[in-house]
Design brief:
Chain lengths: 239, 340, 288, 406
């Protein structure tokens, strides 16, 4: 195992009753890398994410964060290890304000005063200052996505998992998201599940393709897009 | 925030000082204050921790029994009072740990808390035999434990806290508990707790040990309920298994929901209003007391789901925002359920 | 040997009682995700209906098997229309509202009937098993419980109404799209659950007698049985009633009724700790 | 607002008005008799007729010229079968209403809730209910029947009739535990044995396994000390199993709340009881009492042991006050200790000065046709159980409730 791998999984397998959702997944992510996961619905991407955040314990296999075994660890322990996740449907604290949401995340590893500063900083970086005191439930979808990213950012993660960050965003918002992702990538490695291939192409160099619970292939974006087998399982069906 | 807190402290203090002159029955007033503390304990864990406990009476009863038993054994009522805080707090911590580390929520949590209360109730009811003894204290079964020493002035052991002095003592404790919880809710622990209520999964994913925090909150609620039980034992000078009864648990929930679970003041107001109503109903025989309380609960759930105090607060803040807020809360609940 | 037979008989009876008092609640919970905490008072209502109609001269079996469920069904209809239907989808709120209803009903009963315990004589005499005398009515209770559970199973599994009901519960939008009126399905389910509660109350009345607060003795047990069983109406109720009936009776025979009841409660806590969503939340997921 | 308005008699206004007056003026006008009973909730079966009995006794006292030339007025509270309310209303009677005497309390728990308060405030207290015995307190008079008074006549009579092996079923609280001990004591004394004692919490309503256990033990007779509505199911289930014709039964509790009327003839017939009161007691005093009750309330269906004990308790207090010529606590106590007595429906009742418990006639009865047919009368039975532990003449400051060790 190489020390510069921020995340590594070996033989991760998840079974629900008789159904195998993930089978023998070996995955490796280097420090600072940005990787997209693609694959049709039911390919196992979300299950894989759940394993990485500790929401699911793999039936077999192990998960290493910076070389340390975190298999079966609780979600909060994994989060404290520097793993941040943005879920598919924005998971925020609805009746609290945007800044309160972000503060709660920052406060986890910081003192209250530091957290106040971090919150200001994150609000600024995401240009959310004018809605800082608004109740999150009242915000538009795109803003809620940003608030959730702010939550992730405030935790100063070294690994960020994003589940369909561009879904439901307007063109303008997508551009904004791309720049935020690049910004995130300055301090952290990223794994992004995404369907929109244009979006994938605009952010990622490398792509991992999931199919039926297995890793089908792992290659640069252009190569993957040219790969006929990928077209068959995924793009073909989508196009 | 601080100004608001000191303002409410002053208002509360004045109300409590004035109350005995307006309402001449100090004895009833005292028990209303005690009920207020009990309601506050549930209001805290339910309104701010999102934990609906169907067995708050368990901690209430434990506090009362712990006080009675310790007072008989140690003949030192202030030590007994301390024990009466520790025992329910520990019990709540143990029960909470079982619940939250076992990931029980919603209706399952309700069942287990209810069952825990039932077990205590049934157990206490079956301790009439002379074998059931803790030190010198006979548990007494259905008839309970009478005749224990109550609190005295710490510097004068012959001066018992009764009537006015007991009332002011209870009122001060209620005020302190209220302010303490207010402070706690503005402190990081309270803010995190509210965050957990809003979205448990999110709180976990940013690194909070939700199980631990909920257990702690539950223990605080249990301790406050136990404190109410301890005061009740001092007031009634007898403890009986009825303190653990389902109807006692039900009453607390009714106070909180009618008063308003989303605020700290609401539960206290609910306990005062309904507690007073119960005593007045006791003086007529036309309508059954339970009939009135039950109907009130149904009406409150249907027409005033947020409770008296938050509704009034909303009316002051303006109608439109209130409606928007209500919708938002509902979507958030649904989302939490999906996330699980 | 005879004693063993009597013990087995008592265990079966205990299970039958749990099944009987829980099925109505289970139907409503399993199909609609509504906990009717006034369930115990629906039982009491059935009991009063049976006693009143019997005292008015109606045949005892008709009183128990027809009058009791009918009265509870009518009342359940009113409750569903006036209270419960506004609260669908809000589990805690339905619990609180029906809890209020439960208290109000207890108060109402004592205003109407007074606090005296009333009862009717059991219609079946005892019989002998070896040197032991056994209540014949216990066999009747076991038979009714078996019929109830069998009937509910058939309705859910085989009949069209049951299919529609299950569909509507799982996916209201879909059922609506197929042209079924889900509001009516909910209503009928609630009424059916109420009728089952009334029937249970009628059947129990000759054995235990009825007073305004009699329901309280049942609701806790029924609630615990249903929640521990999980959402599958038949298999869940059967599994948990079987477990709890066995545990409580065994401990009752070994020690005292109190120990039996406390053992039941402990079993429930342990069970829920191990299986936080009930027996059928973990096993038997696809069963009804 | 404290008085149950409906029940305030004769021109007494609502308490608020009364409270507004200086207490000296009040004291000269009427004597205030505090009454604290559960007239609603699960114990109203006991409390309602007791409340009626208080009213009737007060009216009779007043129409006979009152006490020491003054009329008696009732100040009543309904405790709604809630123990917490006892403490509350007890305090109120003593401190705000400043009554001259308190009659009431039903459960032992309710008595223990108000007894210390009334003692501290020097308000004389009458507890007129069948109970477990052992209360030793100069401020209280317990006029109800206690376990030994029943068991000493019931157990030997039943054993002589049915046999030596006794199976005891008792409610699992103070009263049941203590009564069971007395039954064991008298069974042994009569040369028999108690093969088993089972205790049941008051909410147990399923006796199936118990009935099987009893058959397994095959006793000659059952002694039932079962209490309350849930326990009533025992008699039904016993009859449903057909056991009522196989093993006979005696009871110290059945009938105290008129259970013999609630049960059918088949379920109740043949059960042997011992009480101070029975409607079927054919004395002129008793029949006259029932006649007056009927005139006043329309029917005598609800009259029971506790109601009659309450009626006699109020009259006994009045006798004491008359004899003393005062309602001051110490004067009344002295008069009652000195032998003041009342001739009531159950016969003569007087106070045993050592224990402040009552001496009266006890009747052995058998349930027949939903009635309590008197078999035999035992005249003037003293409270032998409390006498073994309590001597207020020697220890006037005692306040203990003793658990009698036999």
């Amino acid at each position: 195992m190489r020390a510069d791998a921020i995340l590594e999984t070996r033989g991760v397998t998840v079974r629900f009753g008789g159904v195998t959702a993930l089978e023998n997944v070996d995955f490796r992510l280097d420090n600072g890398e940005l990787r997209c996961l693609i694959g049709p619905n039911g390919a196992g991407k979300s299950t894989f994410f759940k394993c990485l955040t500790g929401l699911l314990v793999p039936s077999e296999g192990s998960i290493y964060l910076q070389g340390e075994d975190f298999t079966g660890a609780h979600p909060h322990a994994i989060a404290r290890r520097g793993v941040g996740i943005k879920t598919q449907v924005p998971s925020v604290m609805n009746t609290l304000s945007a800044s309160e949401n972000i503060w709660l995340s920052a406060r986890q590893a910081q003192t209250s005063r530091e957290a106040n500063r971090t919150t200001e900083e994150v609000l600024q970086r995401l240009e959310l200052q004018d809605i800082a005191t608004d109740e999150v439930a009242t915000l538009a979808h795109g803003k809620r996505q940003l608030v959730e990213l702010g939550i992730v950012m405030a935790g100063r993660p070294s690994l960020v998992l994003l589940d369909e960050p561009a879904a439901g965003l307007t063109g303008e918002e997508v551009e904004r998201m791309v720049s935020v992702i690049h910004e995130l990538n300055r301090d952290a490695a990223l794994v992004i599940v995404e369907h929109d291939m244009h979006f994938v192409r605009s952010i990622a160099q490398a792509v991992t393709v999931f199919h039926q619970g297995r890793v089908l292939t792992e290659a640069p974006v252009e190569a993957v897009m040219a790969d006929p087998s990928v077209r068959d399982v995924y793009l073909g069906k989508r196009a | 925030m601080l100004r608001e807190a000191s303002l409410s402290a002053i208002i509360g203090l004045i109300l409590m000082l004035v109350a005995p002159f307006v309402f001449d029955d100090i004895y009833t007033l005292t028990v209303l204050v005690i009920y207020g503390l009990l309601a506050l304990s549930l209001g805290f864990i339910w309104g701010f921790g999102g934990i609906l406990c169907f067995g708050q009476a368990a901690f209430f009863g434990l506090g009362a029994y712990a006080f009675a038993i310790a007072s008989i054994n140690f003949a030192e009522p202030w030590a007994a009072a301390l024990i009466a805080l520790i025992v329910p707090a520990l019990f709540a911590a143990a029960l909470g740990a079982m619940l939250f580390y076992g990931r029980l929520s919603d209706v399952y949590l309700a069942v287990v808390t209810l069952v825990a209360t039932l077990i205590l109730f049934k157990f206490m009811n079956s301790t009439a035999g002379s074998a059931y003894k803790i030190g010198n204290a006979r548990l007494g079964g259905y008839n309970g434990i009478p005749g224990f020493d109550t609190l005295t002035l710490p510097w004068d052991r012959s001066e018992y806290l009764i009537d006015e002095s007991l009332y002011y003592f209870c009122a001060l404790i209620l005020l302190a508990a209220f302010l303490g919880l207010r402070w706690l809710l503005t402190a990081p622990f309270g803010r995190i707790l509210v965050g957990i209520r809003e979205n448990e999964l999110r709180a976990e994913l940013v690194g909070y040990d939700v199980r631990l925090i909920k257990t702690l909150a539950f223990a605080i609620g249990g301790m406050l309920a136990g404190m109410a039980g301890m005061l009740f034992a001092n007031w009634a000078e007898i403890v009986t298994p009825n303190l653990f009864s389902l109807s006692q648990s039900a009453e607390v929930i009714i106070w909180v929901i009618v008063g308003g679970a989303g605020s700290l003041l609401g539960p206290i107001v609910g306990a005062f209003a309904l507690g007073a109503l119960k005593f007045f109903l006791g003086q007529q025989t036309l309508v059954d007391n339970l009939f009135v309380l039950g109907s009130l609960l149904v009406l409150a759930v249907l027409f005033l789901p947020r409770g008296i105090v938050p509704t009034i607060a909303l009316l002051f803040k303006g109608r439109r925002k209130g409606i928007r807020k209500k919708g938002a809360r509902r979507t958030s609940r649904r989302r939490v359920r999906h996330a699980r | 040997m005879d004693f063993a037979a009597v013990v087995v008989m008592e265990i079966c009876y205990a299970i039958a009682v749990l099944v009987l008092i829980s099925t109505g609640l289970a139907v409503i919970f399993g199909m609609m995700r509504v906990i009717n905490l006034a369930h115990g008072e629906f039982l009491t209502l059935g009991g009063y209906a049976a006693i009143m109609s019997n005292q008015a001269g109606l045949n005892i079996y008709l009183s128990i098997l027809v009058a009791a469920p009918l009265a509870a069904a009518i009342f359940g209809f009113l409750v569903e229309r006036l209270i419960v239907r506004f609260l669908y989808g809000r589990l805690i709120n339905t619990m609180l509202a029906t809890w209020g209803l439960s208290l109000a009903m207890i108060g109402g009963f004592s205003m109407i009937f007074g606090n005296t315990t009333t009862g009717i004589t059991t219609p079946i005499s005892g019989f002998a098993v070896g040197k032991y005398q056994i209540s014949g009515y216990n066999l009747f209770v076991i038979a009714i419980a078996a019929l109830v559970i069998g009937g509910v199973y058939l309705i859910l599994k085989i009949s069209r109404a049951g299919l529609v009901a299950r569909g509507a519960m799982q996916n209201p939008e879909m059922a609506q799209a197929f042209g079924y009126n889900t509001s009516r399905v909910y209503m009928f389910t609630f009424v059916a659950g109420s009728a089952l509660a009334g029937l249970a109350g009628g059947v129990m009345a000759p054995l235990v007698g009825i007073n305004p607060a009699a329901g309280a003795a049942y609701i806790a047990k029924a609630f615990i049985t249903v929640i521990s069983g999980g959402t599958a109406v038949i298999s869940g109720t059967l599994a948990s009633a079987g477990l709890f009936g066995f545990v409580s009776q065994t401990f009752t025979f070994l020690a005292t009724p109190v120990v039996g009841e406390i053992a039941l409660l402990f079993a429930a806590v342990v069970l829920l700790r191990l299986l936080p969503t009930g027996i059928t939340g973990r096993f038997l997921k696809d069963k009804v | 607002m404290s008085v149950n308005r409906r029940k305030v008699l004769k021109g007494a206004a609502a308490t608020t008005a009364v409270l507004a007056m200086p207490s000296i003026i009040r004291a000269e006008e009427t004597i205030k008799l505090g009454s604290i009973l559960d007239t609603s909730g699960i114990f109203d079966l006991y409390g309602k007729p007791m409340d009626k009995a208080v009213d009737m006794a007060i009216d009779e006292i007043n129409s006979a010229g009152g006490v020491a030339g003054r009329q008696v007025e009732k100040v009543a509270y309904d405790t709604q079968s809630d123990m917490a309310l006892y403490t509350q209303y007890g305090q109120r009677l003593a401190r705000q209403d400043k009554v001259d005497v308190v009659h009431g309390g039903i459960l032992s728990a309710s008595r223990e809730a108000i007894r210390p308060t009334l003692r501290k405030n020097k308000v004389l207290y009458f507890y007129n209910v069948q109970y477990e015995g052992g209360v030793c307190d100069r401020n209280i008079f317990c006029t109800g029947i206690t376990p030994a008074q029943q068991a000493e006549v019931l157990v030997p009579a039943a054993m002589e009739k049915w046999g030596k092996k006794v199976y005891v079923l008792a409610a699992d609280y103070n009263y049941g535990q203590i009564t069971a001990k007395w039954i064991q004591h008298y069974a042994k004394q009569a040369g028999g044995e108690v093969v088993q004692v089972d205790f049941f919490p008051l909410d147990v309503a399923d006796f199936g396994s118990t009935i099987a256990k009893i058959q397994d033990a095959a006793p000659d007779m059952i002694m039932s000390v079962l209490v309350g509505g849930a326990h009533l199911s025992f008699y039904r289930q016993w009859a449903a199993a057909g056991m009522n014709t196989k093993i006979p039964m005696a009871s110290t509790t059945m009938g105290a709340g008129n259970e013999q009327v609630v049960l059918t003839k088949e379920e109740g017939d043949g059960i042997m009881l011992a009480y101070s009161f029975s409607k079927q007691l054919e004395t002129p005093a008793n029949q006259g009492f029932l006649e007056r009750w009927k005139t006043r309330y329309g029917a005598t269906d609800d009259v029971h042991e506790l109601a009659v004990a309450t009626y006699q308790g109020v009259h006994l207090w009045a006798e004491g006050a008359r004899k003393a010529g005062s309602v001051e606590r110490d004067d009344v106590i002295a008069a009652l200790e000195g032998g003041a007595a009342f001739d009531g429906p159950t016969g003569r009742i007087s106070i045993d000065p050592k224990t402040h418990h009552a001496t009266f006639d006890v009747h052995l009865v058998e349930v027949k046709d939903q009635k309590m047919a008197v078999q035999k009368t035992f005249v003037q039975r003293p409270p032998v159980d409390t006498q073994t532990v309590c001597n207020l003449e020697e220890n006037p400051n005692d306040t203990t409730q003793y658990e009698i060790d036999i």
